[in-house]
Amino acid sequence: MSKQYTIPEILSAEIEALRTIPQENDYEAAIRLILEHVHQGGGRLITSGMGKAGQIAHNIATTFSSTGTPAYFLHPSEAQHGDLGMVCESDVMLLISNSGKTREVLELVALTRRMYPRLPFILITGNSESPLSQLVDVTLSTGNPAEVCPLGLTPTTSTTVMTVLGDLLVVSVMQRIGFTYHDYSLRHHGGYLGDKSRELVSPETEKK
């Protein structure tokens, strides 16, 4: 029989998953790779993943791009049909795979390394002993929380933690590069956030 959850139980499980994100992850190494390859080396951050993990990867890429770190999402399957040509030697890649065994992502690493053997990879995963973990430069573990799902299958807590790990990297890099209200306003012309960022730009900053 499938497990039934109350709303408070779902909330508690999601919160507990965030509390148990491993603090021993080498966040500094991941941040350093992004800074070195994108902000110092002129490359871009490429994110990738399949299914729900891919949707999280896409969101991380757009958030990075809007906060001063050029990034884009590369679909692992489309990469095999020509999109791999978007990758440059100076780039760094952030992969997301809960199992660490996703076939398309494993193939993406192999194909990319065939072009650029030294291109670095960061991985967000629930399985730090997985095949993907053996191939990348930095592994960030989610802690592999159990999914809050009557069937125990649907990505719920895992995608919550993946999103937070992405936020951790985004905010850390923003702080390291000194991203300002003025910088934000240049990338957000329309909408509420664009208006708000322009309101917060000081006259001194606007002259720069």
TrEMBL record:
Residues 34-179 form the SIS domain. This is Sigma factor regulator FecR. It comes from Porphyromonas pasteri.
